[in-house]
Design goal:
Largest sheet: 2 strands, antiparallel
Distance between the termini: 22 Å
Structural class: mainly alpha
Number of strands: 2
Bound molecules: geranylgeranyl diphosphate
Helix content: over 70%
Strand content: under 5%
Radius of gyration: 18 Å
Oligomer: single chain
Shape: globular
Length: about 260
């Protein structure tokens, strides 16, 4: 668990949680248990995604994948334990006036469960080597990737006792930035090296995977990523300049190199 969790990921999801909390007038210390919980869920999904029966990858976060070092059995259990640990850590969050602990648990299970992360992964497996349409690819990206980024900002808002309107604003921001994130990830897979990425580059093409660049080309993919990022900025308008950290992370994501 430590090997994969502390390998040095970008920590985008926990930063989004804290940024969303601050945009809603909350503090990083109150948001921290939920921020750590989403990073545990994210790391679990990476460990399982890299397994031979899933995406079958040898390299992640700049080091050999969990199953390459500890064997497949231990890697499966590592993922299971990280997912479970996420709930233990989330349970340490202080409840806010508007959101009960049950609301928080429901938010996490809705994201990590069969309707989102798992649905995305199932659709991804079923799509292997098939020609997908853009809406079909978008279905996978929204569930496999965007849902957890949206959940990250929503949990931050909930930790700060956000209003229903603020939660709606954060959800719109998360949806745009989450999809932009995966489009950019598709672009980086074809434009960067394994060393730059810290994970195997060029993999999507070799596996004949449907990606934005494969379907609409590199230039159009860049345009779509920029449009989605612009929409994420526009979504933040109701915060009237109080969501500076969220704006900064959206800007960083568009320019990121790994
Ligand atoms: C396999 C049962 C089972 C569950 C996991 C959701 C899921 C299923 C797997 C998704 C894993 C995955 C590779 C999703 C794509 C999102 C993505 C590009 C992740 C990489 O995120 P970064 O770049 O990684 O934020 P770091 O290492 O920086 O945290």
């Amino acid at each position: 668990m430590r090997y994969s969790l502390f390998a040095g990921g970008k920590r985008i999801r926990p930063i989004l949680t804290i940024g969303a909390a601050e945009a809603c007038g909350g503090s990083s210390s109150t948001a921290l248990p939920l921020a750590c919980a989403v990073e545990c869920i994210h790391t679990y999904s990476l460990v399982h995604d890299d397994l031979p029966s899933m995406d079958n990858d040898d390299f992640r976060r700049g080091q050999p994948t969990s199953h390459r070092v500890f064997g497949e059995g231990i890697a499966i259990l590592t993922g299971d334990a990280l997912l479970t640990q996420a709930f233990e850590i989330a349970a340490q969050a202080r409840r806010s006036a508007r959101y009960s602990n049950a609301d928080i648990i429901r938010e996490i299970t809705n994201t990590a469960g069969s309707l989102n992360l798992i649905a995305g992964q199932v659709a991804d497996i079923e799509a292997s080597s098939k020609n997908l349409t853009l809406p079909q690819l978008r279905y996978i990206h929204e569930r496999k990737t965007s849902a957890l980024l949206t959940c990250s900002v929503r949990l931050g808002g909930m930790s700060a006792n956000c209003t229903a309107n603020q939660l709606k604003t954060l959800t719109a921001f998360g949806n745009y930035v989450g999809l932009a994130f995966q489009v950019i990830d598709d672009i980086l897979d074809v434009t960067r090296t394994t060393k730059q990425l810290g994970k195997t580059a060029g993999k999507d093409k070799r596996a004949s995977k449907a990606t934005y660049p494969a379907i609409v080309g590199l230039e159009k993919s860049r345009k779509i990523a920029k449009q989605l990022t612009d929409k994420s900025f526009a979504a933040l308008k109701p915060f009237k300049g109080k969501a500076k950290a969220l704006e900064a992370i959206a800007r960083y994501l568009l320019k990121r190199e790994n």
